[in-house]
Give the backbone structure.
Amino acid sequence: MQRKTFTHAVLALAAGALLPLAVQAQAVKLTLGHGAAPGNPRHEAALKFAEVAKARSGGRIQVQVAPSAQLGDDAAMLTALRTGALDLSANSQGAVSAAVPEYAAYGMPFLFANSAQAFRLLDGPLGKELADKSADKGLVVLGYWDNGIRHMTNSKRPITKVEDMKGLKMRTPPDAVLVDIMQALGAEAQQIKFAELYVALQQGVVDGQENPLMNIHASKLYEVQKHLALTSHMFQMTPFLMSKRSWDRLSDADRKAVTEAAAEATTLQRRLSQESDDKTLADLKAKGVQVTTVDKAAFEKATAPVTEKWLALPIGPYVKKVVAAARAGAAR
């Protein structure tokens, strides 16, 4: 009897010792990279995604978040997603449009007055069509996050009219539409990685840049740029993407957990982004940034050829649908 009890005890201890190994074997470890700084809504939402994915999977899904372009810039992370070297990325509209050109449709100049107008399209059939096109390129869309309405800063002069743009060396991300917009306004477009932007502005490599207010604030660009023009020249989303290779390795239960976590993270990111704009503008003014508004009609007229150019490209039919839907929504 004692021998049997002892044997049972040994077996129980052995099972207990093996249990962590079994749990470890079932763990799904994912890496999520993005280019924004901590404190940015993109980073906060990435952390929320990791938290919810872990909770919904009973602790099995473990997501490591790498902010501030630690894993490379958006273009490099996009390549890594498509090859399966990276699992997840809250990426950029411009970088993703290099693989899926239709993303550029949402960046047509002065198309959306606010992000909410864009999301009415992205959360409907047009967004589903974009997700399908993304899947064809090895990218699973988990959500469309908000990168805000973009504005311009520079160190040279206040901008109120189109003529003020002439000759300014303006940094742009790798976004062909933004390059077209800058050139249409008479500025010189130069591409510099976001992680290198602060130093480039500080050293005068470029005169200015354009970004949503939350990015300008989170990366402290106001320290080296004292003129802010509220141009609202472009909307940009942040596609929240998963490598199709990583997605295909997940079980149905894990896919459900990831999808639910992404939905919560998307809701949070959009809310934080919206809330940040008013507070950020007030704070930038308090830090001594000179804020101007521009002759919107003149800026729209100067950049109208950009939309016409993109309508004539191979993605023109999709651009036409997006532009028509956006204008119809704005007219309501």
User: Anything to note?
Assistant: Confidence is low (pLDDT under 50) at residues 1-25. The chain has 13 helices and nine strands.
